[in-house]
Amino acid sequence: MVSARAVAETVTDPELPMLTLADLGVLRDVAETSDGVVVTITPTYTGCPAMDAMRADLYSALHQAGFDSVDVRTVLSPAWTTDWITPSGRDKLASAGIAPPSSAPRGNGLIPLTLTAPPKRVACPQCGSLDTELLSEFSATACKALRRCQACDEPFEHVKEI
Amino acid sequence: MSFDNAYEALTEDNDARWAFGTGFADPLAGLDTTVPSGLDAAELARSCLWLGDDALIMSHRLQEWVAAAPELEDEVALANIGLDLLGQARLLLARAAKADPSIVPSVAQSDEDALAFFRDAADFHNVRLVELEGGDFAVSMARLLVFSTWRLALLQRLVDSPDQVLAAIAAKGIKELTYHRDYAARWVVRLGDGTELSHERMQAGIDAVWPYVDELFDDDASLREEFDAVIAQVMTAGTLKQPPVRPAAQTRYLEPLLAEMQSVARAHPDATW
């Protein structure tokens, strides 16, 4: 029988279906105990409506694989960061036309206001040019920003650092 | 549940859409919500309820821009910011209910729905800033700047809360609020330092929300220094003037807002979809 972890690792994100929850860094732990399987996940953004779908998909995948007793738990701390997206997850995003995030900002103490979006070297996932501009830090899902490539004129999404 | 196209997603039977009546799982499922010893559970519940009410009402006001924003990008931005705050509200209301179940109206709904949809205006504890009617885009940007600057400072304090749940909600919220504050500040600067007309309207927006600023610091005046520093930076960059302090009118805008927000839940308490 395959391990519960192997099954849980195949479940994909409802909004970024090219990524598994493991690629996204949302799957924090899978433990097989005498009472059943305990899966721990963490939300990307607090308002992310995909959490319920993730839970349902994990239950269903594990039940189908023969694990009858499954408990999906939420953990909020430490807060999810895009740094947890795996290298393979980053490759899959880029192949799907979504620019992967660079390193998330770190720091303690007062958070500086940034009146001008800091220049970022985000490569266009279509043509590879680094000549891209930010259109909006908010896009079709909570986790993405909208950019445009100045070289090929194509708009594209970018998983923003958090 | 992954779909090849959006239409397939719309016709799927057993889904969980985000609206009243969808039977969501407890957003705190699996978290240890025991109130740490030495902490007053009723006081913790009150803090979470107040923070949750601010987020819920502000989220509703932001949602009013959906289908009415000047550009699609801004509509998406305002909807996203509203969604982040709605997420914070869900967690905070659920946390408040777990800490002190006596605050939850006795209706057959989840704790968060009962608190959001079955309390009357008098039982909400939000600051009046978030109730204000949207006004034009400049008023909304001024309000969002003031709100997110204050809330970001507040949440930065709360990461040290002895309650692990509240501390974790605050830590996640900080990352979101940082984007919200930058978004609002950039618009305030762009409009303030724009044309004569945009400057005039942005200044009017700041003037409209300013009477509601003092109330934000009633509970914790120590947040004021950080707030003032950030606002001063934005005012300077936007060539805007910080208005003198004026007392706010006592008008309440909450009743009509709740009448709309709660109407479906109250008319059809057993609705599912």
Quickly list its features.
heterodimer; A: 162 residues; GMP Synthetase, Chain A, domain 3; 2 domains; 3-stranded mixed beta sheet; 4 helices; 7 strands; B: mainly alpha; Ferritin; 10 helices
In short:
The complex is a heterodimer of chains A (162) and B (273). Chain A is an alpha/beta fold and 162 residues long.
Give an overview of the whole structure:
- The complex is a heterodimer of chains A (162) and B (273).
- Chain A is α/β, with parallel strands linked by helices and 162 residues long.
- Chain A contains four helices and seven strands.
- The model of chain A has no long low-confidence stretch (mean pLDDT 91).
- With 273 residues, chain B is mainly alpha-helical.
- Chain B has one domain (37-243, 252-264): Ferritin, core subunit, four-helix bundle (Ferritin, Up-down Bundle).
- Helix content of chain B is 57%, strand content 0%.
- Chain B contains ten helices and no strands.
- The mean pLDDT of chain B is 90.
- The interface between A and B is large, with 44 and 54 residues.
Indicate the percent of residues in helices of chain B.
55-70%
CATH class of the largest domain in chain A: Alpha Beta
CATH topology of the largest domain in chain A: GMP Synthetase, Chain A, domain 3
Instruction: Report the total helices of chain A.
Output: 4
Mean pLDDT of chain B: 90
Main interface: chain pair and counts: A-B, 44 and 54 residues
Intertermini distance of chain A = 37 Å
The CATH architecture classification of chain B is Up-down Bundle
* N-to-C order of helices and strands of chain B: HHHHHHHHHH
Number of strands of chain A: 7
CATH class type of chain B: Mainly Alpha
Portion in beta strands of chain B: under 5%
Number of strands of chain B: 0
Category by helix and strand content of chain B: mainly alpha
How would you classify the quaternary structure?
Answer: heterodimer
